[in-house]
C-alpha cells in the first residue's frame, strides 16, 4: 500500500504530464485535496507532504477538522451542496466555495462574509450533464446567475465548477469538460477558474482547461479506507 505522500507525488506527476501534453504553462493547474470523511491526521500528513488546499463537503465535519488543525496554515474550500442555514458558517470559515448554484445562496454568503476577511472566492456549479441527482444550475440559467453574482459585494466570482456524468470514455469526458470551458468563455466576465476533474478523469479536465482538479480517492484511498502510514 502507498502512503499519502507517495500518492501526492504520483498525482502531481499525472497533473504535470497532463499539463505538458495540453501545452499549458507549468503550475497552471492546482491540486485540491478532497478530504471529506478523512481524519485530521490524514490532512496533517498531506500538509507535511506539501499540500495546502483542502476541500470539504460536510460543514460540521469540516469545522471540527479546522479546530484540530488550527496550528496549520491550511486553505479551506467548501465543495458540497449548500443549505441556507449553513451559509453563515461557510462565509466565516472558508476561503473558497465551489458549489454555489443559486442566487439566494450567493446573496447570503455575500451578506454574511465578515468584513475583516478578504472577499470569498466563489465558483458557480453547473450541471453540465443534466443529471437529476446532481446539484448545479442549468447551462441555460447560468448567464443570468453569473451576472447577478458578479455584482455582489464581499465575494469574488472566480469561475465555474462541474462534475460531469462519470464515464471511462475519453471522448465523452473531453466533450463534457469542453462544454464547461465554452460556457465560461461565453459569459464575458473576468473569470480565471475552472474547478473540474477528479481522480478518474483529471487528464481530460486539464486538456480542456481545468485550473483546479479535485482529488480524493487517488490521494487518500477509497472512502472509509486509509493509505498505509509511513
Condensed summary:
This protein has about 230 residues and is α/β, with parallel strands linked by helices. The protein has nine helices and eight strands.
Describe this structure in words.
- This protein is of the alpha/beta class and 230 residues long.
- It has a single domain (4-220), classed as Alanine racemase (TIM Barrel, Alpha-Beta Barrel), CATH 3.20.20.10.
- The protein has helices at residues 4-21, 40-48, 59-68, 87-93, 103-112, 142-150, 170-186, 202-207, 217-220, and strands at residues 30-34, 53-56, 75-78, 96-100, 120-126, 155-162, 193-195, 212-215.
- Strands 7-6-5-4-3-2-1-8 form an eight-stranded parallel sheet.
- Strand 6 (155-162), helix 7 (170-186) and strand 7 form a beta-alpha-beta unit.
- The longest helix is centred in the first third of the chain and has 18 residues, at 4-21.
- 40% of the residues are buried.
- The model is unreliable at 225-230 (pLDDT under 50).
Element string (H = helix, E = strand): HEHEHEHEHEHEHEHEH
Which structural class should the secondary elements be placed in? alpha/beta
Could you tell me the radius of gyration in angstroms? 17 Å
CATH class: Alpha Beta
Note the beta-strand portion: 15-25%
Poorly predicted ranges: 225-230
Overall strand count: 8
- Looking at the structure, the CATH topology is TIM Barrel
Mean pLDDT: 94
What is the domain total for the residues? 1
CATH architecture tag: Alpha-Beta Barrel
Question: Major sheet: size, sense and barrel closure?
Answer: 8 strands, parallel
What gross morphology would you assign? Answer: globular
> What percent of residues adopt helix (DSSP H or I)?
25-40%
CATH superfamily: Alanine racemase
State the separation between the terminal residues, measured CA to CA: 10 Å
The total of helices stands at: 9
